[in-house]
Amino acid sequence: MNVRRKYLLPAIDSIVVFISFYLGYWAITPSFKIYKFETLFFSSVIILLAYHSYAYFKLLYRKSWSFDMLAEYFNVIKAYSYAALGTLIVQGVVLNNGYYRAMAIAWMFSVLVMIGIRYVWRMIHVAERIFLSSPTMNGMELNYIQEAFDENWIAPLGENVNGFEKAICDHTGANYAVAMTTGTAAIHMALKHLGVKEGDIVFCSSLTFAASCNPIIYQNATPVFIDSEEETWNMSPRALEKAFEQYKPKAVIVVHLYGTPAKMDEIKAICDYYGVPIVEDAAESLGATYKGKQTGTLGHFGIFSFNGNKIITTSGGGMLICQTQEEKERITKWITQSRDIARHYQHSELGFNYRMSNILAGIGRGQMKSLEQRVQTKTAIYNYYKKAFSDIPDISMNPVSEHDQSNHWLSCMLISKESKVSPEDIMMKLEQKNIECRPVWKPMQLQPFFEKYDFINHNESGISVSEDIFNRGLCLPSDVKLKDKDLKRIVDIVRSCF
Ligand SMILES: Cc1ncc(COP(=O)(O)O)c(C=O)c1O
């Protein structure tokens, strides 16, 4: 527990409780003449003891940091109320002299001051919080937003949307890109374009965020989840091969987890053999390369996400990578409510409102200028952790193949099967120090909503690779704003667990 929180906060609370107590009595009779000495003195000791006993048994100081703000306030109110009530009872029974009005004033004053202190305390603490991967603006975004304002091009479409799509194509070498409201929308449109419909099967990586497979359900199709392999944590070619022996899918969604490229050559060879197109979910891997080629451009369609925690962000947004002008035009029409080219409002097909706004695209254009630097920074963070934990046999970092460049969106660690330390222990310890970290994605076959769908295990029997990674894995802070002292702090805390 934070030492300041352990000693300083209880000390401040004690002073507040003490002062408020006398203040309550003073407010009723400023001269204090009507009160007996023992009533005042013993009562102030009793209220202090009662307050701290309650706080001690309820772990108020130890646990309250993990409570949310309102829960913490509520606990303080409860602690003081019980203490005040207990004191009044003792005054009434033992001293035969309870001053209810004085206590009510003391209660009000104490509670207000203690909540105020906690509010300020949290504000200071939140400023110090270390985040997993929070948005980082470079300032250049404002120029593009200003242009959009100057030209009154606030609504969807406009120079920024075109410019952002071009910047993504220039960086990744993609043929065409379509900016959308989210990465999920981009997967949805890719599946729709591939003709995925009711009754179709779609294979999808099992170790991922639910956004990868939700669009399969939007299209009323059926997902089949494919396990991971240990070398990249991504879709296992062996499990994929097994899945193809049982099913004929309409598409395969391959995720590049945490920015690390999947084994695309093997996966593509299998999909090509069966003539099934790949949708690359590169939501987390913008800037990563597989054998020299950018992820997102290796399948039939690719998608990126610019959600707040991604390597670059537009606060919310996504991009679909496609091969031809015809695909781009068709999808662009769908995502602008499928308006036909006609003066009147005419729609021959079902439409969607998925187009990215010109303002958000302006943020994206500015963010693109930092992409390369961010890949370098995130790689340096990964290498820092790797080196810092290299002498602890129980810890290994998420693996990356040597001919690929991960963008290291999130650095993750895996704890050995033999270790007595669990990811939960480490997460609790980091959280107590105001450091955000997260479990590895819970695999889809273990999700209550998706567990009814088939899952193909990489192993012949027993626990799957994805479940094993979930049980033993942990995502460490990987924010590009992390300073050396932050990294050192994180490493020291993690090391202290082993
Ligand atoms: C693997 C993966 N796929 C898809 C998405 C969906 O992206 P978005 O949040 O932009 O819809 C995300 C991120 O949120 C993701 O991590």
Report on this structure.
This protein is α/β, with parallel strands linked by helices. The protein has three domains: 3-128, no CATH class; 141-368, Aspartate Aminotransferase, domain 2 (3-Layer(aba) Sandwich); 371-496, Alpha-Beta Complex (Aspartate Aminotransferase, domain 1), CATH 3.90.1150.10. Helices cover 48% and strands 11% of the residues. It contains 17 helices and 15 strands. The strands form three sheets. The chain has an eight-stranded mixed β-sheet, sandwiched between helices. The protein has a four-stranded antiparallel β-sheet with strand order 10-12-15-13. Strand 6 (289-290) and strand 7 form a beta hairpin. It is elongated, with a radius of gyration of 29 Å. Bound molecules: pyridoxal-5'-phosphate. Pyridoxal-5'-phosphate is lined by residues 182-184, 208-209, 211-212, 255, 281, 283-284, 305, 307, 318.
